[in-house]
Structure formats: C-alpha cells, structure tokens
Amino acid sequence: MITIRNEQPKDYRQVEEITRKAFWNLYFPGASEHYLVHTMRGHKDYMPELSFVIEENGEIIGSIHFTHAKVITPGGGEISVVSFGPVSIKPERHRQGFGRALITHAIESSKTHGHRAIVLGGFPYHYKPYGFVGTKKYDIAMTDGKFYTGVMALPLYDGALDGVSGKIKFSDGLYPDENGLEAYEATFPPMKKLSLPHQKAFEQAASELDEQECK
Ligand SMILES: CC(C)(COP(=O)(O)OP(=O)(O)OC[C@H]1O[C@@H](n2cnc3c(N)ncnc32)[C@H](O)[C@@H]1OP(=O)(O)O)[C@@H](O)C(=O)NCCC(=O)NCCS
Prior knowledge:
The protein has helices at 12-23, 33-40, 98-112, 124-127, 181-185, 197-206, and strands spanning 2-6, 52-56, 59-72, 78-89, 117-121, 133-134, 140-141, 151-155, 166-169. By secondary structure, it is an alpha+beta fold. The chain has one domain: Gcn5-related N-acetyltransferase (GNAT) (Aminopeptidase, 3-Layer(aba) Sandwich). The strands form two sheets. Strands 1, 2, 3, 4, 7 and 9 form a six-stranded mixed sheet that branches. Strands 5-8-6 form a three-stranded antiparallel sheet, with helices on one face. The protein starts with a strand and ends in a 9-residue tail after the last helix. 32% of the residues are buried. The model has no long low-confidence stretch (mean pLDDT 96).
C-alpha cells in the first residue's frame, strides 16, 4: 500500500539516507543533497506543510521538500511563489511511478494551500510531464538576468503568472554552507565517490541557456 504524508522529525535520518543514495554519484562524485535536506529544514523559508514522504507498506521510499521563493519585479516588488527540491525516490524503486505520485501530490497540495506557482531548477525531462515550462515564457530570469532551460515554472491556477515578470530569487536555504558537508557526510557509512561520464553531461545541461524565441 502506498501512502503520502507530511514528513515528521522521526523520519529525518531515514529521509536523508534515501536522499544520499538517490543522488550519490549522480551529478558529481558523491552527493550533497542529503546535507541540503538536513540543513534546509532549519531555514526560515522551509515549508514543512509541503514536505512529504512516500511510504510503501509503511516504509519510507522517498521525499520532497519545499521552500518559499519570490519573483522580484522590475519595479522592485516581490511576488511569492514556492519551489521544491530535492525530490528523491530510493534507487531500487526508480521509474515505477512513485516519483510521479509524490510530485503530483505535492503539486495538488500547493494548490490547496493557495500558492500562485511553483518555480524550480532541474532537468526538463523530470518536470515537463507535470506541465512545467521554461520561465522564459513568463519573462522570469535568473538573478543574473539569463534564462536557462533548467529553470521552470508551473502556474497553480489559470492566469497565475499572467503579467508576472522579473527575476527569480530562490531561498538562501538552498545554498547551505558547504564547510559542514564533510563532517556531516562522515556520519554515514562510507560510499565510493566516482567520476562518471554522465556527470559531465549533467553539468553542461545545468548551465544550458534557453535560446528559444518566446511567442
Ligand atoms: C527523479 C525521481 C524523483 C523520479 O522518480 P521515479 O519514481 O523514478 O519516477 P517515475 O517512475 O514516477 O517517473 C515519472 C516520469 O518522470 C520522467 N522521468 C523520471 N525519471 C526519469 C529519467 N531518469 N529520465 C527521463 N525521464 C524520467 C518520465 O517522464 C517518467 O514517466 P515514465 O516512466 O512513464 O516515462 C527519481 O528517479 C530519483 O530519485 N532520481 C534521483 C534524484 C533526482 O534526480 N532527483 C530530481 C532532481 S532534484
């Protein structure tokens, strides 16, 4: 049986273990996303009400975590949006629909909570299936003024992003002090860090500019 529920403090370590395994050697040798999950929970922008675990027969197999973000308009105004990530499913259970169930649940809950839009960074093949599109469509750039294919938005109601443009400011909670990573990592059983060919491709994809003309 599959259940999705809010994450609770008793889940923290298990969630971090799964996050670590899911991301290990994926984007670079080792991983830091478990450390991010560990630190972001203490940040003011963290949204426990939109952070969920998915369980299979009572055992946690994945999690998703939300933070507040904002679009800074050209006039200096701030429009509140939300963001999610990391999201992960334990490796043995990948591509069996659990991520879809978790992400869909989280999107629906964001609507229920009355949020305007989700803006996130990631790979389009992960998020297009839910309706996310590059933020260039909405004239929402990164803080450097550029549009990236990996920065995407999903309006949560009709017209939610109409007339909204500017620069997306993700939470500082997504950029933890990396100095703490090594000591934190040492609290887990050792895993081998490997340089793998796909990491280079991910690195290139992460900085790919969105060159498409907007209509
Ligand atoms: C990304 C992740 C959460 C997806 O969960 P999942 O349970 O494996 O995904 P699902 O089976 O629900 O797939 C849903 C859809 O997402 C897309 N998708 C998911 N993983 C994909 C992959 N590796 N490559 C291409 N498309 C993918 C597909 O459209 C898929 O539908 P399909 O299987 O019918 O083609 C999971 O694979 C994971 O933990 N990966 C490692 C960590 C990570 O990369 N997290 C996302 C970045 S923050």
